[in-house]
Each structure stands twice: as structure tokens, then as C-alpha cells.
TrEMBL record:
Family annotation (Gene3D superfamilies): 1.10.1740.140, 1.20.272.40, 1.20.58.1080, P-loop containing nucleotide triphosphate hydrolases
GO cellular component, one term: mitochondrial degradosome
Compartments in which it is found: Mitochondrion
Name of this chain's protein: ATP-dependent RNA helicase SUPV3L1, mitochondrial
Documented EC number(s): 3.6.4.13
Organism listed in the record: Tinamus guttatus
Source species taxonomy: Eukaryota, Metazoa, Chordata, Craniata, Vertebrata
Record's keyword annotation contains Acetylation: no
């Protein structure tokens, strides 16, 4: 007990904390080191003789005037223990230098060696800003286009070659040469992660520059903006990014010329909501923010005898293009589009009216945490701007919502100015991690990344991108003996960690890489190819995952060419798979009907008109929560009247929504749905009536007796 008392006294001394900081132990590391040190002393059967003597002196002389020992004497032993559990303390100065991210422009000496001209094309969607940048790209002797999506890169690739300007296509999974002899063309259209910072160009185009703030991919725009070796760099995007780009270019000694553009066609926010799918017109696009809503809405539309096209993010690019072509074709009976915000960029669509099925969207914050919040002004403008596109058959665009209550909030969102982009993303490079590994040879890749981020220093213009996906893959393949560079490349693979099938494929492939060869037979055996058309939604989702597996093989084939020799064969198989997925999407309502009896399926849907798709979620706890809900006649105290909620400012409303989710996230589901406006009192009354009726019929076993008693009391109150 005396030892523990003195150890805690040692931990609280300011002088000891200061000494720890001088030796590289910040508050977090100091605390972790002390916990380990205390555990070592208290739980060890024996300690070293010199530490035993110091502890003996401290404890035996406690309270005496002539002290032989003092708690401060423990510091050398504490520091020695800390260095055993945190090896980087021995080389902290070197590690701090490696992880110093305060001057990213200096990482690109080739770009700093030339004087670049920066031209910012600023404007909303459908203003012609990218068109003017591309015209300069086509007229240049050499050029590179950097876009956020494969679809955009492919569009510029086609436009260039159609204009007799030979242009290559470079994406993570594909290389297409304009010249038959596979000689590199002077023009390249690529996804932004694939741009070269060593090749000189006359003109470079960086599209959607506002994505420099993206928590996951922002580093790619920062790298392109600071590192491209081009005489002219044309940057296209929202006006919200002008200030940040100007400040970043000030640090490189380069000036920014801003060219502003106005929207080419008018866009009107309607004064009325759609309210019913019976009011749909040709050229309408219903925007949903979840797959389940996509499935539900599309089925309700086809139940009315209308045909609709479907586009969402996880569909292969070829399927998206086919669905867009079907919707755009005047001769095709399909005149309605149901889509996610994937239509916000990369597809040219003939849309007359955008209808937001919901204005609540799941998102990931800077810490990698999932949130549900109102869509941002930037997102709303990007999606709304797809209506009435210049050059389409519709000369004017319209925007509204599915539900009447959402319309005032949408108007307020669209009327706000877009929040300025405040910082640009950064990501540790393979070279930086290798230098860390030199000093910390026994650390895992996940630990190296953690240490790098904890020691990294950035100024106010930058932030370190979210690395959770990278660490997830690093931990997953840690037990496989790969060299550090190969391990790093595997961890940057563009896959969705929520797809277990794709993740297990990466694990299997990384294992086979030890044998120096990974032929197509591995992918075929794992995916059980050949596959037939899907019979339900679950099978369609599996086919999409298989497509991602083939994408992964192609991505790896360009980084380990000798180990993945069957890229051409995989590409042929992928084209066949794309056709199969298209068949499934074209028959999506049949797949939904086939999925409904399967309660275990993640795609099981509720499509009743009484429960709008964007406002209901299947939850097994709904019935039990309704038992504890307040009677219909008693309004919840914290539920605001619609007029009061509309009167709030948008900022306050967002704050209230987040607070409700935080407070009531684990409470009664009925209360939570009422607070969020997802359930009305009338719906609650009907659900309670149905639930009580089911219990009276004995459908839920012995527990129904207690419910019936409660119901009888409730009925008695109502009669009185």
C-alpha cells in the first residue's frame, strides 16, 4: 500500500511531468507509460536490486526529517521502462523531423523549379467552368486532366480522341493507349490519385478542387495542386475553395487568376412538394441517400405502371452509363430516374426536376465517426444543379422535395452561402513510413501510422486525412510476412471495408503473393465464376462485390505486374459480369419482390405509402419500444410544433438534431422517431393498435397477458 501511494505521488508531481515532456513523453504517452510502470512494480514477483533499494528508501523514510529517498529518484527507472514500451523515445528528434508536415510545397522540387500560372475557374454546377478549362487542355501541346471519378476521366478521354487529340486513359484499374503501339500520348486523362508529379506538361486541369477538404481523399488534390509540373494549371470548382487555393499558392510564390462563371440555365426551387409518386412527370429524378430507399421508391414507381432507371454508387461504371443512356434516350419509355447523390458528378443526364426524397444524409466526420445530419449547402447545390443541364432537352431546372415539411428547410439550405474550404488534406507517404520503420524496426505498420500521426506537425492550412481504412487493412494482413513497401501498397487498395467478401479476397491474395504468382484461378475459385443473373437483391449486391474483387485484381496488376499476369482475362470477365449486373438492375423490382419474404436479408424493405421510404427503418425493437411510448393523447414535451421548428435558423436546427441523436440514440425508439419527425402521432396510434391486437390474438406467447392488462387499463381510461 505504501508503494502504491508513493507511485501515485510520483505521477502527480509537475516536475516529473515536465521531465517526461523533455524526453518525448506527451501527456498521453506519459499516462500510458506510468500505468505500465505501476503495473510492472505492483504485479512483479521481483524487481531489480537498484529499484528495490530506491523503493525501500522512499517507503521506509516516509514522514522522517532526514530522507534517504525521494519519489523523484524513480524517474530514471520510469524512463527506462517507458523506452522499452515506446522504442521511439530513443530517436524522437529524428521521428519528429520525418513527420514534420508543415511545408508540403518542398516535397515537389520539380514543380518549385518552374514558374506556374494558376487559373481558378469558379462557378456553380452547369456554368461551363470545366468546359473552358478543357478547351485549353485540348489546344495545348501536352496536357493532363485530373478528375475525381473514372467516369469523368473516361469522358475527357473520349472527347479528346473524338477531337483528334490523342489522349491516354489512366485509372487505378485501367490503362488505355491512344496509339496502337502503346506509346504514351502527349495528353492524359486520369483519376486524380494517378497523376504523375514528375512528367512535365504544358497544361494541367484539376477538377472539383473543393474535394481538397475531403477527409479520406483530400490528400490527392493537395498533391496535384502543389506537385504537378505544368506551365498552366487550370483549377475548377466551387468559389468556396478560392481563398484556400490562393493562400496555398502564396506559400509557393505563385499568383492565382480567378475567372467567375454564372449558371447557363435558370434553376427554380418550387413552392410545393411532390407529396405523392402519382405526381411524377417525365424527366423527374428522385434523389435518395440509401440503397433501401432506392429499392423502395423504384418498386412503388413501377407499381404505378411507370418505368424507371436506377443509379447508385456501388454500381459498376458501365452499368451507370447504361442506366443514364436509357434515361436520356427520347425513344425509351423510361422517363423517371431514381438515384443517390452519385449523380452529383460524372454523368450527363437530361433531368427536368430534382426531387429530394429526404434531406437527411449519413456522413463520416473528420474522426471517422458516422453521423446523420442535414445535407450541406454544397451537396444540395451540387445535386440540384443537375436539373436543366445546358444542352439537354430541358431549358430550365426545377428542385423540390418529396415531403412538404422538408421544403422550407431545403430552401434555407440552398439560400445559404457555401462554407469556405479551410484546410487541405495530407497523407503519410510510403517513403516517410519506411524512414519511420528504419528507426522502429519491430513496430507494425498500423503502429507506425499511429506514431506518425501523433507526432506529425501541420500548420493551419493542412490536416492529416482519416487513416482508419488504412489501419484496418494493415491489421488484417499483419500476420502475413510481406515487405513493408508491399504491405503499404496493399493498404492503399481502393476497397470498401464494409464488404467482407472483398476484404477476404485481399487477405487471400496477399497470402498467395508469397508464392510470387497470383493467377486468375484464385479469383475465379473465390468468386465461383461463372455466375448467373441475380434472383434477388442479396444476389445483386453479391455481384457488385464480385465486380469490386475483379477491380481489386486489376488495381494490383498494375502495381505487381509479375504477380498478377491475367489482367486481360479478368477485364474480359468483368465486362461479362457488367452485362449480368445490368440485367439485374433492369429487373430490380422483381428482385425486390423476391427478397421480401427473406427476413434475414439486409435488403428487406417496407414500401407502404403510409411509411415513406426515407422516413422508416426496419428495427426489431420497434414493437417493444412502442409499449413504453407515451399514450397518443399526451404529446411529448420536447417535441416541437412544426411552425416552431421551421422558425429556427438552420444552424440551430442542425445542432438540435445532433443533440437529439446523442441524447436519445439509446432511448425509446418511438420517442426518437417522433423527435426526429420520422413518425407522426397518427402512425404511432396505428402501430400501437396493431401491436395490441396481435398480442390479444396470442401471437407473441406468454408475454401477451401483461400487455393485454395494460391495454385494458388504457381502453378503460379512453372510455372514461
Amino acid at each position: 500500500g505504501e508503494v502504491l501511494k508513493n507511485l501515485n505521488k510520483f505521477y502527480k508531481r509537475k516536475e516529473i511531468q515536465r521531465l517526461g515532456a523533455e524526453n518525448g513523453l506527451d501527456a498521453r504517452l506519459f499516462h500510458q507509460a506510468f500505468i505500465s510502470f505501476r503495473k510492472y512494480i505492483m504485479e512483479s514477483n521481483s524487481v531489480s536490486a537498484d529499484l528495490h533499494i530506491i523503493l525501500n528508501d522512499i517507503c521506509c523514510d516516509a514522514g522522517k526529517i532526514c530522507l534517504l529517498g525521494h519519489v523523484d529518484d524513480l524517474f530514471p527507472f520510469f524512463l527506462r521502462h517507458a523506452k522499452q514500451i515506446f522504442p521511439m523515445l530513443d530517436c524522437m528528434d529524428d521521428l519528429r523531423k520525418i513527420s514534420d508536415l508543415r511545408l508540403p510545397p518542398n516535397w515537389y522540387p520539380e514543380a518549385r523549379a518552374i514558374q506556374r500560372k494558376i487559373i481558378f475557374h469558379s462557378g456553380p454546377t452547369n456554368s461551363g467552368k470545366t468546359y473552358h478549362a478543357i478547351q485549353r487542355f485540348l489546344s495545348a501541346k501536352s496536357g493532363i486532366y485530373c478528375g475525381p471519378l473514372k467516369l469523368l476521366a473516361h469522358e475527357i478521354f473520349q472527347k479528346s480522341n473524338d477531337a483528334n487529340v490523342p489522349c491516354d486513359l489512366v485509372t487505378g484499374e485501367e490503362r488505355v493507349y491512344a496509339n496502337e503501339d502503346a506509346r504514351q500520348a502527349a495528353h492524359i486523362a486520369c483519376t486524380i490519385e494517378m497523376c504523375s508529379t514528375n512528367t512535365p506538361y504544358e497544361v494541367a486541369v484539376i477538377d472539383e478542387i473543393q474535394m481538397i477538404r475531403d477527409p479520406a481523399r483530400g490528400w490527392a488534390w493537395t498533391r496535384a495542386l502543389l506537385g504537378l509540373c505544368a506551365e498552366e494549371i487550370h483549377v475548377c470548382g466551387e468559389a468556396a475553395a478560392i481563398e484556400l487555393v490562393t493562400e496555398l499558392m502564396f506559400t509557393t510564390g505563385e499568383e492565382v487568376e480567378v475567372r467567375n462563371y454564372e449558371r447557363l440555365t435558370p434553376l427554380t426551387v418550387l413552392d410545393y412538394a411532390l407529396e405523392s409518386l402519382d405526381n411524377l412527370r417525365p424527366g423527374d429524378c428522385i434523389v435518395c441517400f440509401s440503397k433501401n430507399d432506392i429499392y423502395s421508391v423504384s418498386r412503388q414507381i413501377e407499381a404505378r405502371g411507370l418505368e424507371c432507371a436506377v443509379i447508385y454508387g456501388s454500381l459498376p461504371p458501365g452499368t451507370k452509363l447504361e442506366q443514364a443512356k436509357k434515361f436520356n434516350d427520347p425513344a425509351d419509355p423510361c422517363k423517371i430516374l431514381v438515384a443517390t447523390d452519385a449523380i452529383g458528378m460524372g454523368l450527363n443526364l437530361c433531368i427536368k426536376r430534382i426531387i429530394f426524397n429526404s434531406i437527411m444524409k449519413p456522413s463520416t466526420n473528420e474522426k471517422g465517426e458516422k453521423e446523420i445530419d442535414l445535407i450541406t449547402t454544397s451537396q444540395a447545390l451540387q445535386i440540384s444543379g443537375r436539373a436543366g443541364r445546358f444542352g439537354s432537352s430541358f431549358k430550365q431546372g426545377e428542385v423540390t422535395t418529396m415531403h412538404r415539411d422538408d421544403l422550407p428547410q431545403l430552401k434555407e439550405i440552398l439560400s445559404e452561402t457555401v462554407q469556405p474550404v479551410k484546410a487541405a488534406g495530407l497523407h503519410p507517404t510510403a517513403e516517410q513510413i519506411e524512414m519511420f520503420a528504419y528507426h522502429l524496426p519491430d513496430a507494425t505498420l498500423s503502429n507506425l501510422i499511429d506514431i506518425f500521426v501523433s507526432l506529425s506537425q501541420v500548420d493551419g492550412l493542412y490536416f492529416v486525412c482519416n487513416i482508419d481504412d488504412f489501419k484496418f487493412l494493415a491489421d488484417m494482413i499483419q500476420h502475413i510476412p510481406l515487405n513493408l513497401r508491399s504491405r503499404y501498397v496493399f493498404c492503399t487498395a481502393p476497397l470498401n471495408r464494409k464488404e467482407p467478401f472483398v476484404c477476404t479476397t485481399l487477405l487471400k491474395v496477399s497470402y498467395f503473393l508469397l508464392f510470387r504468382k497470383c493467377g486468375i484461378y484464385i479469383g475465379l475459385s473465390h468468386t465461383k465464376w461463372p455466375l448467373g443473373p441475380p434472383k434477388n437483391i442479396k444476389e445483386l449486391m453479391h455481384l457488385e462485390a464480385v465486380h469490386d474483387v475483379f477491380d481489386l485484381y486489376l488495381w494490383l496488376s498494375y502495381r505487381f505486374m509479375d504477380m498478377f499476369p491475367d489482367a486481360a482475362l479478368v477485364r474480359d470477365i468483368q465486362k461479362k459480369l457488367d452485362d449480368i449486373i445490368q440485367i439485374g438492375v433492369c429487373n430490380i423490382t422483381k428482385l425486390i419482390r423476391a427478397s421480401q419474404p427473406t427476413a434475414a436479408s439486409g435488403a428487406t424493405l417496407t414500401t407502404s405509402e403510409e411509411f415513406p421510404p426515407s422516413r422508416t427503418k426496419r428495427d426489431p425493437g420497434l414493437a417493444s419500444d412502442l409499449q413504453g411510448a407515451k399514450p397518443p393523447g399526451q404529446p411529448l414535451k420536447s417535441v416541437e410544433a412544426p411552425g416552431e421548428r421551421r422558425g429556427k435558423s438552420l444552424k440551430a436546427h442542425r445542432s438540435a438534431r445532433r443533440e437529439d441523436l446523442r441524447i436519445h440514440g439509446h432511448g425509446s425508439l418511438a420517442d426518437r422517431l417522433l423527435r426526429e419527425g420520422l413518425l407522426t402521432q397518427e402512425m404511432l396510434r396505428q402501430l400501437q393498435s396493431e401491436w395490441q391486437g396481435q398480442h390479444r390474438n396470442g401471437r407473441y406467447g406468454p408475454s401477451s397477458k401483461r400487455i393485454d392488462q395494460n391495454s385494458s387499463k388504457e381502453m378503460g381510461k379512453k372510455k372514461k
